[in-house]
TrEMBL record:
PROSITE patterns (alphabetical): HTH_ARAC_FAMILY_2
Protein's UniProt name: AraC family transcriptional regulator
GO MF terms, alphabetically ordered: DNA-binding transcription factor activity; sequence-specific DNA binding
Keywords: Transcription, Transcription regulation
InterPro entries (UniProt xref): Homeodomain-like_sf, HTH_AraC, Tscrpt_reg_HTH_AraC_N
Record has Membrane as a keyword: no
Transcription found in the keyword field: yes
Annotated organism of origin: Sinorhizobium mexicanum
Pfam family membership, one: AraC_N
Length: 313
């Protein structure tokens, strides 16, 4: 009697379903790896995506970046090459077939050494590539991701095999169709690398008034070049990016530290309460008090006490 061999995707579904027995976003024993399970769709939630590889093995998700919407589902992967504030929403899930995914953070500091080994195998376009993209997963990348997941059930292998699997994942991404994004971000003094420096500065100083000419000077760019390449990579202007950071942090302060809307808005840099409430409503669909009340009600009864602030995946 012959047995049917599992496909890589089915094995990934089984591993994630076994380990993530309940809904939520779960850190794992493998450094940098998280797994995600959701049995129903929900309203969009703010999220801060870091450089990462995210693979959906069942279900689908919608990610809003600036004024763009990316939709990806089973056997797709999302590659993020720079820190990006987004809205994310599980768009296909049910108790019978829950949304299941994995996310693995990319250590961009390991990319230059790997580039020295593999050389220049792709022509680098002159335009700055978007810092987030969706693509169908190739068999070689899927195989490496499956071996990464298998480490969850073989923890004694993590120390020896994780560095090898991580290097292979980076290699597959770098020589794949969207490897230019990672190459550009890791090339010192390239325009995408300069935008990465601008993003890092904005994340640290989001509550301070933003002067574009000062930011351009900090990263050795002209104002026009900063605007052009920042928008190309993040789908936002620097001011829009700062606003996203402020609103996400204000929401976190109200949810996790129970600040009221006035204090939260002031703490993230808003001088006008009416402006904060107006921009918050545009971002999240409701005024601050109503939105936070809805979220808190939805959390009643959850054993984990998790917030709606989702990690990437």
């Amino acid at each position: 009697m012959t047995t049917t061999r599992q496909t890589p995707r089915q094995e990934m579904i089984d591993i994630i379903a076994r380990i993530a027995e309940r809904d939520g976003d779960h850190a794992t024993v493998v450094p940098g790896l998280s797994i995600h399970r959701h049995s129903s769709t929900a309203k969009p939630n703010c999220a801060a995506y870091k450089p990462s590889l995210a693979i959906i093995v069942q279900g689908a998700k919608r990610v809003v970046l600036g004024d763009e919407t990316l939709v990806y589902g089973a056997s797709d992967y999302l590659l993020t090459s720079i820190d990006l504030p987004v809205l994310s929403q599980v768009s296909q899930a049910s108790p019978e077939e829950p949304y299941l995914s994995l996310a693995f953070q990319i250590d961009t500091g390991k990319i230059p050494a790997l580039l020295d080994l593999i050389g220049d195998r792709r022509v680098k376009p002159s335009a700055s590539a978007r810092g987030m993209t969706v693509s169908k997963i190739a068999p070689d990348l899927e195989d490496a991701a499956l071996r990464l997941l298998r480490l969850l059930e073989r923890p004694d292998d993590i120390a020896a095999l994780l560095p090898l699997i991580e290097q292979e994942l980076l290699y597959r991404l770098l020589v794949g169709p969207h490897g230019t994004r990672l190459r550009q971000m890791s090339t010192a003094e390239s325009q995408p690398h300069q935008i990465g420096r601008a993003v890092a500065w904005l994340k640290e100083h989001y509550a301070h008034p933003l002067r574009i000419d000062d930011l351009a000077s900090r990263v050795s760019m002209s104002v026009s070049s900063l605007h052009h390449h920042f928008k190309s990579i993040t789908a936002m202007s620097p001011l829009q990016y700062q606003k996203q950071l402020r609103l996400q942090e204000a929401r976190r302060l109200m949810l996790e530290e129970r600040l009221d809307a006035g204090d939260a808005g002031h703490q993230v840099g808003y001088e006008s309460q009416s402006q904060f409430s107006r921009e918050y409503s545009r971002q999240f669909g409701e005024p601050p008090a109503r939105d936070i009340g809805r979220v808190r009600r939805s959390l009643v009864g959850l054993l984990s006490g998790e917030t709606e602030m989702l990690s990437e995946g």
